[in-house]
Amino acid sequence: MTPPGTVLITGPTRNLGRYATLALADRPDGRRPDLLLVGRAGPGLTAVAEEARSRGATVREIGCDLSSLAEVRTAGAAVRDLLAAGDLHPLRALVANAGTTTADTRRASADGYELTFAVNHLAHAQLIGDLLDSLAAPARIVLLGSNTYHANIWRKLLHVPEAVWADPLELARPATGDQAPGMNAAGVAYSNAKLAVLYYAHELQRRVGDGIAVSVFEPGWMPGTALGRTAPEAVQRIGRALARVPGVSTPERSGPLLASMALDDRWAHLRDGAFVVKTKLTEVRPVAQDRAREKRLWEATADLLSTAQASQDASR
Ligand SMILES: NC(=O)c1ccc[n+]([C@@H]2O[C@H](COP(=O)([O-])OP(=O)(O)OC[C@H]3O[C@@H](n4cnc5c(N)ncnc54)[C@H](OP(=O)(O)O)[C@@H]3O)[C@@H](O)[C@H]2O)c1
After folding, report:
1. Could you give the CA distance from residue 98 to residue 37 in angstroms, rounded to a whole number?
2. Substitution candidate for ligand 1 out of 14, 114, 191 with most atoms within 8 A of CB
C-alpha cells in the first residue's frame, strides 16, 4: 500500500468538498493524509481546516478564488513552496472538486472568461499544469464530472439541458446583450464545462507519465447544494425539497466516496479519465470520447491560460 502522503482538494468549504475533506481527516493514524485545502479565503475555509485538524490531520489552507487565474498561479506556487520546504508529505492526489454555475452567462471571471467554464475547467487546468511536477508517483488526479453532459429522460423532464459543444474559445466567451440569456443557457454552460472536464481528463492522461492516474468522479445528483445558488429562489426551494427525498445523493454520502477515489487501493487501477458514478465504473457516452475535440480543447486551454498570464504581465 502506498503511504497516504498529501491530498490537495479544491472547494473544501462546503457540501461535497467539505465531506470529502472530513472523510480524509477521519482516516486512522498511518492512513491519514496531510491536507492542502484550496478554497476562497474566509470563515468557511478556516472552519473546515479547524474541523479537519481536530480530527488529527495536518492541514494547510491556501486562500484562492478560482475565478482569477492570477490567484490560481499564486496558489500553485504556494503549494510548490510548501512541498519543497518538506513541511508536508509527498503530494499523492489532487482532487479538483470546486465547481460553480451561474444563472447569468454574461458573467466573466477576472480574466474575462465565461465564469462557469473558467472555474470548472480553466482554473483546474492551470492548477494541475502548475503542479504536475510536484505530484509524487504513484499519484492520482481526480476531476469532478457530471452526467448532465448528456440528456436522459429524467433530465429532459426536469429541463436540465445537455452539452452543446462549440469551439473552446467560444465556450470561454461570456454571453453579451442587455438581458441574461436565461436558465437554459446557464445549464448548457454547466454541461459544456463538465463535458470539457471529461475531454480534458482523457487528453491529460495521454500527456502525463504512467505514474499519474487520471479519473473523473460523478457524485450523483445532490439537489440543494450551493451549486444552484444563483438560480431563482423558487428553483432553489425545489432543490432543497428534493434533497430530502430518500435515495437521492447527498454530500454527506458522496463526500466519502470522493475521498476514496483519491486514495483507496480499490481505485488504484483507474486510468484514462475513467468515469466513476458514486461507486460504479461507468462507460461514458460516445460524445464524451472525441480525440479531435480533446486535442483542440488542450490547445485552446493552453492559449486561454497564456493569454491571461500575458495580460496580467502587461498590466504590472
Ligand atoms: N450537486 C450536484 O448534484 C453535482 C452533481 C454532479 C457533479 N457535481 C460537482 O461536484 C462538485 C461539488 O459540487 P457541490 O454540489 O458540493 O457544489 P457547492 O455546494 O456549490 O460547492 C462548491 C465548492 O466550490 C467552491 N467554489 C466555487 N466557486 C469558487 C471559486 N471561484 N473559487 C474557489 N472556490 C470556489 C465553493 O466555495 P465557496 O464556499 O467559497 O463558495 C464550494 O466549496 C462540483 O464540481 C460540481 O460540479 C455536483
Report:
1. 11
2. 14
Q: Does the C-beta of 224 come closer than 6 Å to ligand 1?
A: no
Classify burial at 154, counting beta carbons within 10 Å of its beta carbon; exposed 0-12, middle 13-18, buried 19 or more.
exposed
pLDDT tens per residue, range 141-178:
999 999 999 998 888 888 889 999 999 999 999 999 99
> pTM score > 0.85 for this model?
yes
pLDDT tens by residue, 48-63: 999 999 999 999 999 9
Residue with the smallest CA separation from ligand 1 atom 19 is: 226
> Which residues have C-beta within 8 Å of that of residue 211, sequence separation ≥ 6?
135, 137, 138, 139
Edge-to-edge strands of the sheet including 274-277? 59-63, 34-39, 6-10, 91-96, 135-144, 212-218, 274-277, 280-282
Instruction: Determine the distance separating the centroid of ligand 1 and the alpha carbon of 294, expressed in angstroms.
Output: 24
| Atom number in ligand 1 closest to CA 249 | 3
What the block records as the C-alpha cell of 219 is 457524485
User: In the chain, which residue ranges form alpha helices assigned H by DSSP?
Assistant: 15-25, 43-54, 69-84, 115-117, 123-131, 153-157, 168-171, 183-207, 233-242, 251-263, 291-314
Q: Which three cell numbers stand for residue 249?
A: 445523493
Residues 183, 103 contacting (CB under 8 angstroms): yes
